[in-house]
């Protein structure tokens, strides 16, 4: 049910276990593609009660999800049991009739905990990490999750069966978006190009979805394929883009192409090789093997499918724009604005405390409640000039105050009123590279512009009237709040009560509108803050929709993420339960960016969430893996922990020595590129270490030394390339 999750060379399943299935395999010609054949390879059975899904780790380990036992069983590539984890229940790490499993590129194990309506994450050894999701039908909530798939960038896709949709999450469980379906999906799979396939038996249909373009296609249903799709259970896709379906009605496997034409059918009811009893989830690898959960026969069967002349699909190596959780920063509640000053750090404005908090070591506080210089009354906005002068919209005092970076008052300007230079609850402020100060004079429904000395220059805007009930006038405002200025000195105005952002030239000439009122992508409900980054991307804190939306400099939506705290349960292991989950926003109140990082404050939380934004997407790095093992020294007088450390170091040195030969680099040079992927204790007492380096280091060495390519045959299961 996943995209070829074992994409390496150098590892293979021994052919001595292969038996060609004759009686139960029916191969169908596919025009000029020729016949395909199916060979039985082996089975995994030890300890299994009701295996419903299976996936593969990069080191060849096989992870089998057992619904009846509420466990994950792990086997090595030869079928030898290694470990198991999970138990029945509803607590962290516990499972209730789980139905799907998927392994991320980083080796984390994700399980669709179906009856608990959540997704749980573990490390490769079974240690519980976190969970996300809760019961319901709102964004980020789940109702009977039945399928999981993870793409090459770590994005998680969930078949939300009873909500009849597919939901997308980041690898930290941050909700990204949902795609509604006409019917309940039983399972999903992803091809190498990132297309998601949803199997909908009740329709019956397979729907192909591209989350980047939001294009939806129906895989063509011939009369033959429509019949078996109605009893379909699991779906997987191979490296060529062909689809495998497990069919319950006749306990068989069907392979179809992207047009819906049947290529191969094999299997029958029974307990023998190539026979099935309620087959479930599947996965494939790049060598043409398919692993099938044969549920009521209490086993996983492995087959090798060959004969197709179709080329492998090109694996996409760059994702769409992406967001990743970075960390949490302790601050305080009721934050109304944030601003990062280079070389000084993050400044936090608190409406409740009427002061500025500078995050440093130790933290510093500037101001208190009052009307004197340096005192504040319900301040709503904070910014800084290019030379670090702080400017605060002192909302309750109807003025702007300017402070030096250490909090000393420089001067102030403005007072209550409607005349030029006067304010009525100013709630937004920004300073351009030309040191022009822009103030959102909120209740006067205008933007005023001052020079760096606070001298009034001009203003633009007035209270808007609606042309139609849905469309306010362009260039006019209804309680403008937050402001942001891009590199071209153009000004973004958050037109809050009109639920939109307007863009103007630096002197106030209208350019365009971004957004409108609503819940759809690109629409806003109660937007509260905006900011721009160094690449002129615009971020909108969409409070009413509990999300952040990101627009490129042309005003096109490129990313949105987040959901309500009411839609989730606390389950992340990033600290105490009082700490927010990544991407969960109760009442988002302020945002700012600095050097690719996005800082998000929630007025009900005393923590700031920090995210890393990748405007050009994540790049998939191909890596070369080596697995080595070593025993602790027999005559060591050290304790067990030290002996294991010595064995780990010995295995690591073996891997480095082999990489020196393969790359032509020194150990010191390799250490900068080396990544330890996994360390585990084997039943034999040995310590096994999996390491990796960028693939180009190895392939480049082979190209530079072609005479060396035949000197040494790779050892089985010890090295492989992640492609």
Average pLDDT confidence is: 87
Quantity of strands, as a count = 58
Described by strand count, sense and barrel closure, the largest sheet is:
5 strands, antiparallel
**How many helical stretches?**
4
**What is the straight-line distance between the termini?**
19 Å
Percent of residues in helical segments? under 10%
β-strand percent reads 35-45%
Rg, nearest Å: 29 Å
pLDDT under 50 segments (min length 5)?
A: 4-34, 567-577, 702-723
Strand order of the largest sheet: 1-3-28-27-26
Shape field: globular
Multimeric organization = single chain
Which keywords apply here?
disordered C terminus, five-stranded antiparallel β-sheet, 4 helices, mainly beta, 41% strand, globular, 7% helix, 723 residues
Task: Give an overview of the whole structure.
This protein is mainly β and 723 residues long. Helix content is 7%, strand content 41%. The chain has 4 helices and 58 strands. The strands form 15 sheets. The protein has a 5-stranded antiparallel beta sheet, with no helix packed on it. A hairpin with a 5-residue loop joins strand 8 and strand 9. The two termini are 19 Å apart. The relative contact order is 0.10. The C terminus is likely disordered.
Short description:
The protein is mostly beta strands and 723 residues long.
Layout of helices and strands:
Blueprint: E1 19-20, E2 25-27, E3 37-44, E4 51-56, E5 62-66, E6 71-75, E7 81-85, E8 100-103, E9 109-113, E10 118-122, E11 128-132, E12 145-150, E13 156-160, E14 165-169, E15 175-180, E16 187-190, E17 196-200, E18 205-210, E19 215-218, H1 223-229, E20 232-237, E21 243-247, E22 252-256, E23 262-266, E24 268-269, E25 275-276, E26 279-284, E27 289-294, E28 299-306, E29 322-330, E30 335-341, E31 345-350, E32 355-358, E33 364-366, E34 381-384, E35 390-394, E36 399-403, E37 409-413, E38 428-431, E39 437-441, E40 446-450, E41 456-460, E42 480-485, E43 491-495, E44 500-504, E45 510-514, E46 527-532, E47 538-542, E48 547-551, E49 557-561, E50 563-564, E51 584-585, E52 588-594, E53 597-602, E54 607-614, E55 623-630, H2 640-663, H3 667-673, E56 675-681, E57 687-694, H4 695-704, E58 719-722
Parallel strand pairs: 24-25, 50-51
Antiparallel strand pairs: 1-3, 2-23, 3-28, 4-5, 5-6, 6-7, 8-9, 9-10, 10-11, 12-13, 13-14, 14-15, 16-17, 17-18, 18-19, 20-21, 21-22, 22-23, 26-27, 27-28, 29-54, 30-31, 31-32, 32-33, 34-35, 35-36, 36-37, 38-39, 39-40, 40-41, 42-43, 43-44, 44-45, 46-47, 47-48, 48-49, 52-53, 53-54, 55-57, 55-58, ...
């Amino acid at each position: 049910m996943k995209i070829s999750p074992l994409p390496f060379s150098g590892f293979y399943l021994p052919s001595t276990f292969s038996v060609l299935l004759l009686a139960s395999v029916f191969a169908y010609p596919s025009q000029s593609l020729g016949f395909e054949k199916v060979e039985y390879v082996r089975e995994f059975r030890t300890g299994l009660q009701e295996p419903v899904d299976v996936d593969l780790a990069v080191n060849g380990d096989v992870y089998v999800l057992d619904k009846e036992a509420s466990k994950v069983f792990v086997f090595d590539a030869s079928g030898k049991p290694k470990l198991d984890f999970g138990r029945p229940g509803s607590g962290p790490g516990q499972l209730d009739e789980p139905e799907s499993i998927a392994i991320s590129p980083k080796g984390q194990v994700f399980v669709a905990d179906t009856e608990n309506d959540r997704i749980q994450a573990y490390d490769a050894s079974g240690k519980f990490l976190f969970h996300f999701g809760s019961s319901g039908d709102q964004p980020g909530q789940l109702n009977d999750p039945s399928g999981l798939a993870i793409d090459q960038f770590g994005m998680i896709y969930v078949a939300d069966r009873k909500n009849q949709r597919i939901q997308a999450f980041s690898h930290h469980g941050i909700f990204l978006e949902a795609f509604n379906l006409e019917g309940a999906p039983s399972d999903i799979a992803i091809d190498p190009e990132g297309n998601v396939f949803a199997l909908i038996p009740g329709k019956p249909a397979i729907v192909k979805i591209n989350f980047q373009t939001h294009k939806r296609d129906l895989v063509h249903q011939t009369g033959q394929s429509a019949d078996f799709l109605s009893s379909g259970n699991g779906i997987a896709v191979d490296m060529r883009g062909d689809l495998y379906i497990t069919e319950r009605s006749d306990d068989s496997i069907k392979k179809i192409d992207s047009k819906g034409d049947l290529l191969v059918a094999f299997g029958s009811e029974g307990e023998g090789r190539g026979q099935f009893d309620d087959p479930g989830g599947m996965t494939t690898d790049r060598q043409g093997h398919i692993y099938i959960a044969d549920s009521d026969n209490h086993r996983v069967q492995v087959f090798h499918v060959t004969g197709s002349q179709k080329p492998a699909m090109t694996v996409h190596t760059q994702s769409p724009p992406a967001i990743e959780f970075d960390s949490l920063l302790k601050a305080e509640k009721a934050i109304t604005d944030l601003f990062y000053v280079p070389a000084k750090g993050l400044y936090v404005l608190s409406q409740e405390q009427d002061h500025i908090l500078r995050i440093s070591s130790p933290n510093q506080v500037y101001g208190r409640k009052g009307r004197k210089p340096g005192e504040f009354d319900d301040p709503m906005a904070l910014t800084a000039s290019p030379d670090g002068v702080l400017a605060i919209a002192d909302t309750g005092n109807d003025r702007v105050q300017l402070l030096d970076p250490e909090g000393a008052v420089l001067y102030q300007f403005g007072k209550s009123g409607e005349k030029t230079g006067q304010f009525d609850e100013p709630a937004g402020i920004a300073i351009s590279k030309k040191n022009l100060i822009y103030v959102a004079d909120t209740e006067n429904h205008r933007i005023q512009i001052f020079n760096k000395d606070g001298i009034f220059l001009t203003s633009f805007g007035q209270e808007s009237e609606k042309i139609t009930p849905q469309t306010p006038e362009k260039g006019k405002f209804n309680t403008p709040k937050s402001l942001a200025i891009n590199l071209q000195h153009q000004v973004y105005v958050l037109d809050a009560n009109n639920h939109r952002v307007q863009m103007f030239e630096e002197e106030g000439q209208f350019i365009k509108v971004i957004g409108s009122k609503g819940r759809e992508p690109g629409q806003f409900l109660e937007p509260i803050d905006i900011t721009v980054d160094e690449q002129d991307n615009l971020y909108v804190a969409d409070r009413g929709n509990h999300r952040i939306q990101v627009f490129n400099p042309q005003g096109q939506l490129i990313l949105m993420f987040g959901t309500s705290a009411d839609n989730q349960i606390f389950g992340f292991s990033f600290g105490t339960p009082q700490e927010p989950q990544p991407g969960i926003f109760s009442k988002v109140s302020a945002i700012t960016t600095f050097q690719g990082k996005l800082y998000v404050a929630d007025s009900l939380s005393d923590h700031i969430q920090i995210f890393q934004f990748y405007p050009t997407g994540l790049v998939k790095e191909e890596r070369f893996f080596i697995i080595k093992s070593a025993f602790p020294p027999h005559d060591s007088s050290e304790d067990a922990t030290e002996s294991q450390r010595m064995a780990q170091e010995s295995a690591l040195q073996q891997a480095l020595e082999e990489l020196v030969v393969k790359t032509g680099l020194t150990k010191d040079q390799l250490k900068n590129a080396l990544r330890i992927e996994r360390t585990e204790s084997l039943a034999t007492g040995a310590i096994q270490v999996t390491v990796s380096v960028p693939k180009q280091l190895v392939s480049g060495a082979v190209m530079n030394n072609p005479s060396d390519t035949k000197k040494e045959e790779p050892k089985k299961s010890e090295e492989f390339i992640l492609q």
